[in-house]
Amino acid sequence: MSNTITSLNTTSREVFTSLIDEERLRIFNYIRTLVPHYSDAEDVYQRVCLTLWKKFDEFDQERDFFSWACGITFYTVCNHRRSRRNDRHHFSQELIESMAQQREQDLSIYNTRIEFLQDCLDSMNPTDQRLLKEAVLEKQSIKEIAKTADRALQTLYNRLTILRRELAECILSKLQSERQV
Question: Whole-prediction pTM value?
């Protein structure tokens, strides 16, 4: 029987680890919406992870993990706020509830937006992909890129502006068409 318990705990731990790893950024971003100081948000995130683990046996795996985690996160943030009542950055409970609801909705489509971003990037020509990669992901200065590519600085600034606009429109278009389905 102890082998069964050990294997269940191992399986639960693996499932939990996988889910928390997948949703880590969205949960932390949700917390950051509600907690003004980064260091406080990190503390709250640690408490949230502990609470999620302690309550994981109550989680219905047919439900969405992120939504379940947001519910627990919301109450953890409320507890944190109660312990910090003297902080001059105190928001009303109504505002926190409103912000929490809006942020959960925004973050619920985060993964979809990332997928659409990748689709939109894949549809661009390799030169534009490389320019975006160098400027955004590798954070090279436009001046360096212009020099290396032997192109005018203003031309690259203009091209990046157009590419960013095209990406935003492409993602928005995909989101709208998904809502219509």
Answer: 0.50
